[in-house]
Write a structure and sequence with these properties.
With 183 residues, the chain is an alpha+beta fold. The chain is built from six helices and four strands; from the N terminus they run E-H-E-H-H-E-H-H-E-H.
Length: 183
């Protein structure tokens, strides 16, 4: 008798940042799961009241360097992708880059993806990937997802696995450099 494949929808925190935020995790997102596909990306942007006085990214960086106590950020809670965007921006703004004003690499995107248990056979992972990617590429489904303010982001299992690993490294570095810890 065949058993049904189990899979889960995971978010950026659970699949990448949390391993650096928490002293212990009940699972290892890389070893315990097989990536199926990234599903969606949610780009974050900085917005501010006109009274802040910064109209460009360069002006915001200048203001933050001159008087950091004048700035604060609102976010969805400690350890969330929105929270981690602030130290990412801060760390990228004190390091000289090739594109000084553009802060190349300072990108924060919330995302969701499908994973399956690590023991799932590749054939099942590939079948799930084909079905989900097919749905995400359907124009009606893409339009529905975009109307929610989310960008469809299908990928291959290998591409999603590479993305999870790169996000884990990126956010781990930001978290360690900012001294963020959730107990």
């Amino acid at each position: 008798m065949a058993t049904a494949a189990r899979w889960a929808l995971g978010a950026a925190g659970a699949l990448s940042a949390n391993v650096s935020l928490y002293p212990q995790m009940p699972f290892d997102p890389v070893k315990d799961f097989k990536p199926v596909t990234r599903v969606a990306a949610i780009p974050f942007v900085f917005v501010g009241h006109p009274s802040v006085g910064a109209r460009t990214q360069a002006e915001l960086i200048s203001l933050a360097r001159r008087d950091p106590a004048k700035l604060s950020i609102g976010h969805g809670g400690n350890g969330t992708a929105m929270h981690l965007t602030a130290p990412l921006f801060d760390q990228m703004a004190d390091v000289p880059t090739v594109a000084e004003a553009g802060l190349t690499g300072c990108e924060s995107v919330g995302w969701f993806g499908i994973v399956a248990p690590a023991s799932t056979p590749d054939a099942i992972v590939n079948r799930l990937n084909a079905a989900i990617v097919g749905a995400l590429n359907d124009p009606a489904i893409r339009a529905t997802i975009r109307n929610l303010g989310v960008e469809p982001a299908p990928s291959t299992p290998q591409g999603f696995g590479d993305y999870i690993r790169s996000e884990t490294v990126k956010w781990g570095q930001v978290i360690r450099n900012a001294g963020i810890r959730i107990e």
